[in-house]
Structures are given as structure tokens and as C-alpha cells.
Design a protein that fits this description.
CATH superfamily: Glutaredoxin
Helix content: 25-40%
Number of helices: 4
CATH architecture: 3-Layer(aba) Sandwich
CATH class: Alpha Beta
Radius of gyration: 14 Å
Number of domains: 1
Strand order of the largest sheet: 2-1-3-4-5
Length: 127
């Protein structure tokens, strides 16, 4: 049986951008990224989902932002996230991982239903 390629969870560490530019050492986005990193490391998903912490996911007006994508899957970006959303984000990652195409918008965890900001088809997401 072929080994599945991990999905990728992207987290913006510079949200909100204005604080980051102002020199705040560990702003809201950095704290969120650290919380996601710690929770993912302690989760069974740790070997199935790669975490990439980035400087920007393009959702600056509504921080904090995270996105999920994978081989042959859509890209889903969520905004208005914080440390209190880490559990829901990992629930989302588990649903996404179990999906063959990432089309899980109808099964989002309750806390994330109104935070889906962007959906890119797989052919665009992986370019």
C-alpha cells in the first residue's frame, strides 16, 4: 500500500500585520502559531499533517488566518482565528485528512462554520 502524502496546514504568524510591523515580538499570530504547533505535536495527526508557519496568508483585514490543502485537494482558508480555536482547527484537519478531495465545507466544526474565507479548487491550489 502506498504511503499517503501529508496534508499541509498553513498558519500566519504575522497576524495582525499592523502589530507585526510595529515590532511586537510575539503578537496574536505568533501565539496562535505556537499553540497550533504544540497541539499538533501532541495529536495523532502529527505524522499526517505538515505545519508550515508563514509570514502572510493574505487575509490581513481579518486576522488570524490558517489554511489547509493537500495533494489533489482544495485549499480552504479560515480567518478570525485565535488560540481558543486550536481544538476546532485540529478537528477540521482530521476531517480534511479523511477526505479524498478536501470538500468538507458542509461538515465544518461549529466554531469554524462562519470563518471559511476562501476556497480554491485543487487545480489552482497546487498550481
Amino acid at each position: 500500500m502506498a504511503k499517503r502524502v501529508p496534508d499541509t496546514l498553513y498558519v500566519c504568524r504575522t497576524c495582525p500585520r499592523e502589530q507585526w510591523r510595529g515590532g511586537v515580538a510575539a503578537g496574536e499570530g505568533e501565539r496562535f502559531a505556537q499553540a497550533v504547533r504544540a497541539a499538533l505535536a501532541a495529536s495523532p495527526l502529527a505524522s499526517q499533517v505538515d505545519l508550515l508557519v508563514l509570514h502572510c496568508l493574505g487575509g490581513c483585514p481579518k486576522p488570524c488566518n490558517a489554511a489547509l490543502t493537500g495533494a489533489g485537494k482544495v485549499l480552504l482558508r479560515f480567518n478570525r482565528l485565535g488560540e481558543g480555536d486550536v481544538t476546532a482547527l485540529l478537528e477540521l484537519a482530521a476531517l480534511f485528512r479523511a477526505s479524498s478531495d478536501g470538500e468538507i465545507a458542509d461538515r465544518l466544526p461549529p466554531g469554524l462554520k462562519d470563518r471559511l474565507a476562501l476556497r480554491l479548487p485543487a487545480e489552482i491550489a497546487r498550481g
